[in-house]
Amino acid sequence: MRALLCVSACVVAIAVGTGSASAQTASEAPSPVIERVSPDSQDGDRQATGAEQDIVVTATRREERIQDVPLSITAFSQEQLSEKGIVGFEGIARETPGVVLNRPTQNFNNFTARGIATNGYNANLQSSVAVYIDELPISTIGNTTVVDPNLFDVERVEFLRGPQGTLFGSGSLSGAMRILNKSPNLASFDASALADIGLTGSDSLRQRYNLMVNVPLVTDKLAIRGVGFYRNEDGYLDNVGTGVRNSNKLVDWGGRLVALWRPNDRLSIKLLGSYEDSDPKDSSLTSPSLGREKRVSDQPDRFTGKQTVFNATLDYEFDFARLTSSSTYSDFDQRFWLDLAGTFPAQPAFPGAPIAFGLDANAYDKVFVQETRLVSSLDGPLQFTLGGFYLHRRRDVDYFYRSSLPFLQARRLTGLPDQYYQKQYTHSISEELAGFGELTYRFSDKFWLTGGMRYGRTSAQAFTEAGGYLASAFGQNYFTYALLNIPVNFNTFTPYAAVEGIKATGSKPSWKASASFKPSETLTTYATFATGFRAPIVNAFAGRPSLVTPSDIIIPDGADSDDLKSYEVGAKARFLGGLVTINAAAYLIDWSNIQAQANRVSDSVQFATNIGGARSKGFEVEMGIIPGRDVFIGFNAAYNDSKITRLSPTEAAISGAVLGHRLSAPRLQGALFTSYGFDIGEETKATLAINAQYVGSYNSSFPNTPGAPNVRLVTFGETDEYVNTNFSFGLKRRAFSAQLYVENVFDDHSVTYIHPEAFLVSRFGTLRPRTIGIRLGYGL
């Protein structure tokens, strides 16, 4: 892998140095079939074209050739997603250089881009990569559920690397991922379907069904498009605590309905409604010490989500610009239930430990987002984008801390109305209001400058609601009697009073400046400076002492915004009429006042704080080669070096960080994809494809214990270095297709994620075992 990286870097250097290469930007995903995808083509039509044509994206909120956009973008069409079997976040991350998905289990995802991460969990911290479904930001703080979106019938997926604060706000510290659904086809009836039946291991059946129907109600004026999906996937882990075999089963279903009305050439109105119910029956985190594919918890760990989205988008074409108004309302209910027994490991002084201890948190999000923007359509040298953005989110969270009924009965702990000894009701309100704009001036067809700025104000405030209770007896709480194995009747239930937390506010600009130089039609180069930040964080339990050790850290109010400055240079080149493409970028990132997660030692309560600074530097390469008819070879690779560069002793003590420590990102990663197509008869096409992804090992967290800076964190570790290999053989005849596939061909069981906190006994995420299956498609 290191040799391949060196060779690729040399090839790129030669191509850029001679100027003979042609290019697409430092991130266009190479494909044997380059597609032109236009947002103005509201009917969703796509034209498969030859290698000479370009991918068009809307990463800058305007339709542009990807090779002219001065930033790193990887784009996936629906055809590419289907061909590679990508149905969710995992596949996107493995095919995008410089990006890692920290995914302990279904519906629990945190992207890391270019090394900007202190650990893979981000508890209480806003994600550093913003994730959008159309105009709705769905990324949130690290210890909340995010439903894995269904990637069927999408126009494309765009992954923008580097800070995107100018156009995508405070959550896009190191990147933004956009999932763009297809709009209705106004001209003709259309339908497509995809069924995927697979077998994981010897007895875990995987079923995935997708259907799309498009119906024009008034030709060229009004159409509707409906999508439905259902997934029923048996688990592959046995929970030795609950006694359930294949416990991490997933049932996920939902759909969306989109209506598009275009009364004239200038005006279009799109209405969308979608619903998804994702219900994993248990976590996918394992305990390797128990054996392969084993986990343990006293009750199933649940990370479920039900999300309803309504959107109305209006587009109006003026003579000089396009006006877009997008209004979105989202309702999201989630369960965050997990066993915390690992907080108290077995000790000789406490026979029978660990005790029954868990958290059942139920959260309810209501989000409203309004974005209005005006994008020029002038033919002259000046182009502009102007807009405003508003977000209001109310999140209600009910914290229910539990024992278990069998444990209470065995220890003769009585008096509780159920298994919960503590209940607390909270809610928080966060808002973001911003104005943004970008200007591009083309001095000639070969040279242009772009400048952008976003000024936003964010606020967040947490509230404890009156009610709930903390159960105790003789002034002592549940932990005392449970750990010491002392029978007692809990006879005191102290209610919580209403408390209004401190309102955290922040306002600062995000900047972007870039220069692009295109010496020929086959080569584009650029240099970009951009800034990013995350909104201030309020700690839900600010001011609360530890119930276990009152002398431990008092939870602080929260964390201020962090700051990030990114410097990037890139080139996008194309050889031989598009038969060879090379996209490369190098970057240097300074990250200061870092928002970091800390954990109180005595009771594992999480809180957000700020620490010194870090630096990330690296490069990314993507290559695509078409050596012959129906043959394609694609390769991408990334190198990253990110580490803590500034840290005070106080910051080290509270966070567990160490000066010079590498952040939670692999130093090396890459992917190789090759396909060969051949004819079988007159109308049947066969394709043989192999896809392999390499990810280097990386740190799970900071190495020391927060609050005890000279004590090594017992949960600290490094993920495995691994290669995941997939194989497929497909046939296509007219509108019908069939594909036989093998995922994880070598049945690799590498550890891809390590949870950084001790409260989980099962803390390791692994590759899904070898899965063999068939996909049957129509109209794809």
From TrEMBL:
Record key words, sorted: Cell outer membrane, Ion transport, Iron, Iron transport, Membrane, Receptor, Signal, TonB box, Transmembrane, Transmembrane beta strand, Transport
Protein's name according to its UniProt entry: TonB-dependent receptor
Signal peptide: 1-23
Residue ranges constituting the TonB-dependent receptor-like beta-barrel domain according to the UniProt record: 274-745
Native source organism of the sequence: Sphingomonas agrestis
Subcellular compartments: Cell outer membrane
UniProt xrefs under InterPro entries: Beta-barrel_TonB, Beta-barrel_TonB_sf, Plug_dom, TonB-dep_rcpt-like
Membrane topology note: Multi-pass membrane protein
